[in-house]
Each structure stands twice: as C-alpha cells, then as structure tokens.
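We now fix the convention by which a protein and its fold are recorded. Think of the row as the fold of the chain written in a discrete alphabet. Here is one such record, which you should read through line by line.
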Amino acid sequence: MERNEMQRRIQLHLLDLLAERVLISPAELHAAKSLVDERALEPGVPLRKGAERGKSGNL
C-alpha cells in the first residue's frame, strides 16, 4: 500500500474515533474528512499538511 493512502486511511480512522467519542461534531467530521480526501487527490502533497488548513480548535 502506498504511504499516502496509508496515511489517509489512518487519518480517516482517527477522525471516526474522535466523532465516536463525541469530541467533534458531525459537521466537523465531514469537513475534516473532506480535507483529507482533497489532499489525497493532490499528487506529491504530504497529507499531514491538510490539517494546517483547518483551524478548528477540535482538530
């Protein structure tokens, strides 16, 4: 499995865990997952930079 795909899956899983524990709202979960998926489509861009764009205090 490609490194970016593995990072993407881990990030999505962690977001699901946060939502499950009610640490983030459904709207924040959707927005964060959209950022992760959006970054995964950009070739050569490390996924960890996607989190810098979201300025929510819960992420």
About this structure: The longest helix spans residues 3-20. Residues 3-41 form one domain. The chain has three helices and no strands.
